[in-house]
Amino acid sequence: VDALRLSLRKRPSATDLLVHYRCHFGRTVHALCNFHALLTNGILWVGELAETPDENFTAEERREHRIFQELLKSVAGLEERLMQGGDEEVDLIAELASASGARGDDTKSLKGSVLEWIMPKGQSLVPPLSQNVKIDRGFNYKCTGALLCPAGLDWRYRLKTKLQSGEMIVTGDQWPPFLYANYHYDLEDAWNGLFRSALLVSAYKHVFTSPSSVDREPKATCSGNARIHGMTRVTLPSIRYIATQVRFALTSSPVFSHTDTVTDSEQFYNSILDIFEDPDEKQEVDDLIIWWNRQIFPSYSTAQHLLVKNSALARIQERRARIKESGSVPGAAGLSV
């Protein structure tokens, strides 16, 4: 009976809003969340826990709640489906919402492309690396090894040997120099150049604006994932998504898994999330998002556009306000019935 019910379950529709949005959600909101747990807990928040004060929840629970709210805002009718449907509907929605397909597509696409960006233009990797086979990357290759070695440590000599042999393990919260502008880590100011490397910008453009936009000036009309989903601003989660993808592309690991203890991708992803959400780092994070928007969206501006007091538009608006206030009809003076 259970097998029959499973076979009769509604299958994903190409027109289902979740199918359309799930890839964008993973790239710009959260790529590694457990959707079934997110939906199950979300139903509780919307229902029986709706009146519970925020301070009664842990920081992790509040974070998960924000992710759930973002999902509800982005998919029309989802809250109604969740609240009116049963367990099977929740299972189906969790299946539809899974963003692993998009993550896999990006992982595959970046695997070869990242090798073209890690060297200055006009220079090639010597010896060359395969674009399809990753076994020689990571700490097995001088260039990728130097980019993955924890920032502040000298990749050469004994450390290199320990990393290659596995005697030394790099955890996800030990950030590598590829995150920094010019791959330079400032011991006196760890924020200096952080998340501003050309490598990250190239990967971001490749995924969000189009692969062809990497080597040319971005255009407002450029077609890509950002344009398809009406994305006009960089999101902090999208930066950490790209950082996680680039880090994995540089490693020798053949298959992406957020539970892989060797690459420790989930820890890396969450450690960036922690710093982005730290109130004490707000100024640096705000400056970072402005910098990123200027790199990716050419029309982005933080300048305020003030309405000139004596401009034609200002005069028209003032006139309209006076007319509304007086209740008179423009052009009615002198008319008789």
The oligomeric status of these chains comes to single chain
**Ends: how far apart?**
80 Å
DSSP, total strands: 0
Q: Which structural class should the secondary elements be placed in?
A: mainly alpha
Largest sheet: none
The DSSP helix count reads: 15
| Spatial shape | globular
Which percent bin holds the helix content?
A: 40-55%
SSE topology string: HHHHHHHHHHHHHHH
Tags for this entry?
single chain; 337 residues; mainly alpha; 15 helices; 50% helix; globular; disordered C terminus
Question: Could you walk me through the main structural features you see in this protein, from its secondary elements to its overall organization?
Answer:
With 337 residues, the chain is mostly helical. Helix content is 50%, strand content 0%. It contains 15 helices and no strands. The chain has helices spanning 2-8, 17-28, 35-46, 59-74, 78-84, 87-97, 100-117, 142-148, 158-165, 198-208, 225-228, 236-250, 265-276, 282-296, 312-326. Helix 12 (236-250) packs antiparallel against helix 13. The radius of gyration is 25 Å and the shape is globular. The N and C termini lie far apart (80 Å).
Write the layout of secondary structure elements.
Elements: H1 2-8, H2 17-28, H3 35-46, H4 59-74, H5 78-84, H6 87-97, H7 100-117, H8 142-148, H9 158-165, H10 198-208, H11 225-228, H12 236-250, H13 265-276, H14 282-296, H15 312-326
Helix pairs in contact: 2-7, 3-4, 3-6, 7-10, 7-12, 10-12, 12-13
Short synopsis of the structure:
By secondary structure, the protein is mainly alpha-helical. The protein contains 15 helices and no strands.
